[in-house]
Write a structure and sequence with these properties.
The protein is an alpha/beta fold. The two termini are about 30 Å apart. A twelve-stranded mixed sheet has the order 9-10-11-8-7-6-5-4-3-12-13-14. It contains eleven helices and 14 strands. It has one domain: TIM Barrel, CATH 3.20.20. Helix content is about 30%, strand content about 15%. The structure holds S-adenosylmethionine and iron/sulfur cluster. The site of iron/sulfur cluster has 12 residues, from loops. S-adenosylmethionine binds next to β5, β7 and α11.
């Protein structure tokens, strides 16, 4: 099987009797778990340069993260993605990931995965593979060292490229995520795709999302993926793939490179009706929609002494109220649709 034949998602199983089903009949099977709001980079579209991080007491301990994640697994969640902030800067994160690996071994979980900026991947790749992680997402917007340093406000591209190589050497499948930015990486997108596909990696392009205040006006950076696709189709052949991950990505295969290209267009509403995911912030707030302000405080539930049945009830109640669709809009001078940051929510 070539890396491109690797499934992007599992076939949809029938809902378990305990399944988490929302008020619109969608079954929640996917939890994204943010383990920290901290990061060693400061990407311009994600954070302001002078970022105020959360006090430690507000952030869930590793035991609390495990407890809540495991409650979701008991309620039928089949896929867990560890994210952040940068998950690999959280002290003890490998203990958490190792611990959650028990759900893979028991068969309760289909997939344990991670989204990372890759700066510390060279150090962690071996341990991730040992814990049962098979595929990871690495965010990479450019292959130009100077632009990488500017977009991340000081990052070292070489570290990320070493991380990607180390992860591949450990047998991890890598999907690259690149935020499409009009004046910064637009011209480089074909080269980025070619680079990823030459290495057997899928690549997904992401439109800038109006989430959290940053220092710049995102309207200036916004690049429509419709335009990007039209441009790519002037020299490549894109064949749509019938893959649906229950999320906002749509996939095409590029005949000339043989690789898969994903498009995440969060400003369109086309994915809400099949949305199967929820997000837990590192402070224990459950968001059932990335594009809404809805929130349930699971930290208060567990720190208030709830037993596992109470926790399960609180999760069910929150999922039942999952909004039908999101509220994104992007426009000059408009406040972000959602005031919390991507680094808090977990992208
Ligand atoms: N630090 C890790 C990383 O960069 O992969 C994980 C967290 S990061 C918040 C997850 C993803 O969100 C990254 O791929 C990043 O590019 C994306 N992201 C952050 N802010 C965004 C925004 N305003 N619009 C679109 N994507 C964004
Ligand atoms: Fe950090 Fe990821 Fe946000 Fe960049 S996108 S600042 S790497 S959390």
């Amino acid at each position: 099987m070539t890396p491109y034949d690797a499934p992007l998602t599992q076939a949809e199983p029938a809902p378990a009797p305990t399944a988490l089903v929302d008020g619109f009949g969608r079954t929640v099977r996917y939890l994204r778990l943010s383990v920290t709001d901290r990061c060693d980079l400061r990407c311009v579209y994600c954070m302001p340069e002078r970022m105020q991080f959360l006090p430690k007491a507000e952030v869930l301990t590793l035991d609390e993260l495990d407890r809540i994640a495991s409650a979701f697994v008991r309620l039928g969640v089949r896929k867990l993605r560890i994210t952040g902030g940068e998950p690999l800067v959280r002290k003890g994160v490998m203990d958490l990931i190792d611990g959650l690996g028990r759900h893979l071994r028991s068969g309760a979980l289909d997939e344990l995965t991670l989204t990372t900026n890759g700066t510390r991947l060279a150090e962690f790749a071996g341990d991730l593979a040992k814990a049962g992680v098979k595929r990871i997402n690495v965010s990479l917007d450019t292959l130009t060292p100077d632009l990488f340093a500017r977009l991340t406000r000081g990052g070292d591209l070489g570290q990320v490229l070493n991380g990607v190589a180390a992860a591949q050497a450990e047998g991890l499948h890598i999907k690259l995520n690149a935020v499409a930015l009009k004046d910064d990486n637009a011209a480089e997108i074909p080269e980025l795709i070619r680079w990823a596909h030459d290495r057997g990696c899928d690549l997904t392009l992401i439109e800038t999302m109006p989430i959290g205040e940053v220092d710049e006006d995102r309207t200036d950076q916004f690049l429509s993926l419709k335009d990007v696709r039209r441009d790519l189709e002037s020299f490549w052949t894109l064949e749509d793939l019938p893959l649906n991950t229950g999320g906002p990505a749509r996939y095409a295969r590029i005949a000339e490179t043989g690789g898969r290209l994903g498009f995440i267009t969060p400003l369109s509403h086309t994915f809400c009706e099949t949305c199967n995911r929820v997000r837990l912030t590192c402070t224990g707030t459950l968001h059932t929609c990335l594009g809404r302000e809805d929130a349930s405080d699971l930290r208060a539930v567990i720190r208030g002494g709830a037993n596992d049945a109470d926790l399960a009830d609180a999760i069910r109640l929150a999922v039942d109220a999952k909004p039908e669709g999101h509220d994104f809009h992007i426009g000059r001078g408009l406040a972000p649709a959602v005031s919390r940051r991507m680094s808090t929510t977990g992208g």
